[in-house]
Write a structure and sequence with these properties.
Strands 5-6-8-7-9-12-10-11 form an eight-stranded mixed β-sheet, with helices on both faces. Strands 1-3-2-4 form a four-stranded mixed β-sheet, with helices on one face. It has eleven helices and twelve strands. By secondary structure, it is α/β, with parallel strands linked by helices. It has two domains: 84 residues, Alpha-Beta Plaits (2-Layer Sandwich), CATH 3.30.70.340; 303 residues, Zn peptidases (Aminopeptidase, 3-Layer(aba) Sandwich), CATH 3.40.630. Belongs to the peptidase M14 family. InterPro entries: CARBOXYPEPT_ZN_1, M14A-like_propep, M14A_act_pep, Peptidase_M14. It comes from Agrilus planipennis (Emerald ash borer).
Length: 421
């Protein structure tokens, strides 16, 4: 059975810049045959997938459909005997309720006394707050933390990276983590911040950086991230623009150079998976490349945090390419998955991108492995909460990031044993 979450927009009728989702509905869809999968896949240029069509999936699927397309889509469902149901009758109302919940949480937090030098995980921080926290850590722990300005976004925002480990040690193995490449996936940046917080501010975790250096980039798409806070909660891409194109932004995780544009990426600048005009066209990705590439010899584990779906996936995004160390990749991914499952009821799927999700090239973990020689490279698709997709409730954030940190510690143990005898 093929079951997946889909996000449909008729682009000629709805501008990619319009954030009013009034009348949009979210359907849960069950796909039981390859033919049904192909029918929906034919809409790929007009579709923004919440999760892309997935092979061998047993999870029910969601798709958000604009009012102009709803009659056509439901007719297709009926003609093809595709089982479906409405799970969100009005997306605008759903997003409004999330905004209200977030606003009330922020009022509650502001009424409480809190330090400007630490954070709590009961709300999603804005980009400036993320950067301020990193800088505060550097000031507080100068012998243990260093922060680098690796570049600026298209709109001029600072992109920061934090190194955790003794200041003068630059020869240790590296665990490299990034987050926020897709703007609407707020939980990814929150998870990266929690990892930083635990590594730096909790003495019981200091052993994690005794033999390993950590490099973490908590928000590498700050323009998109801010736009998803201020204008369009479901914005995915960067915010770059040229005079020649009608829609802003590029999918950063289709903009890496390895097998760029081969499959699973669009040439339509209005598509949610637009690959960009050329590899590394985005200044944010150029900054990422220029910072990470000189470190690649020492990077023993690369993790890119995304949401959602409880997947830990490894290269490659094309079935013609198979890593020589696939057995190790799967075994190490399973260490992450099983460690979390022991703590909570969350279950994870481990496998190659093209096998357990979909074919898509131009992604960061493929580039890290193929062009930089990083042998253990993964994308982690973090959990969602009760069918809310990218809209993870702030009130449930702490248990989720705690789960992930358990998995991160298990991965650290493997890396330390292998590379730090």
């Amino acid at each position: 059975m093929y079951i997946f979450y889909v996000f449909l927009i008729l682009l000629p009728l709805i501008s990619a810049d319009i954030s009013d989702y009034d009348g949009f509905k979210v359907y849960a869809v069950d796909i039981s045959s390859r033919e049904q999968l192909q029918k929906l896949d034919s809409y790929s240029e007009d579709v923004d997938f919440w999760t892309m069509p997935r092979r061998n999936s047993s999870s029910p699927v969601k798709m958000m459909v604009n009012p102009f397309l709803q009659h056509h889509i439901t007719k297709l469902f009926e003609e093809e005997n595709i089982s479906y149901r409405v799970v969100i009758p009005n997306v605008a109302q759903f997003l409004h309720e999330e905004d209200l919940e977030r606003h009330n949480e922020e009022i509650r937090i502001k009424r409480q006394s809190r330090s400007t030098h630490t954070i709590r995980f009961d709300r999603f921080l804005r980009h400036s707050e993320i950067n301020q926290y990193l800088q505060n850590l550097e000031q507080k722990y100068p012998d243990f933390v260093s922060v680098s300005l690796i570049g600026h976004s298209y709109e001029g925002r600072e992109i920061l990276a934090i190194k955790i480990g003794k200041y003068n040690e630059y020869d240790k193995p590296i665990i490299f983590i990034d987050a926020g490449i897709h703007a609407r996936e707020w939980i990814s940046s929150a998870t990266a911040l929690y990892i930083i917080n635990q590594l730096v501010e909790y003495p019981e975790n200091k052993y994690l950086s005794d033999k390993i250096n950590w490099y973490i980039l908590p928000n590498i798409n700050p323009d998109g991230y801010e736009y998803s806070h201020t204008s369009d909660r479901l914005w995915r891409k960067t915010r770059s623009k040229t005079r020649e194109i009608k829609c802003a932004g590029v999918d950063g995780n289709r903009n890496f150079s390895f097998l760029w544009g081969l499959v699973g990426a669009s040439s339509d600048e209005c598509s949610e998976t637009y690959k960009g005009p050329f590899p590394f066209s985005e200044v944010e990705l150029q900054a990422f490349r220029n910072f990470s590439k000189p470190l690649s010899r020492r990077i023993k584990l690369y993790l890119s945090l995304h949401s959602y779906g409880n997947y830990i996936i490894y290269p490659f995004g094309h079935r013609s390419a198979i890593p020589k160390n696939e057995n190790e990749l799967k075994a190490v991914g399973s260490i992450f998955a099983s460690s979390i499952s022991k703590r909570s009821e969350e279950r994870w799927t481990v496998g190659a991108t093209a096998d357990v999700l979909y074919e898509a090239t131009g992604a960061s973990e493929d580039w890290m492995m193929a062009e930089n020689g990083v042998k253990l490279a993964y994308t982690i698709e973090l959990q969602e909460y009760k069918g809310r997709g990218f809209n993870f409730p702030q009130s449930k954030l702490l248990p989720a990031v705690q789960d992930t940190f358990v998995g991160i510690k298990a991965l650290h143990s493997y890396i330390e044993k292998k590379y730090c005898p």
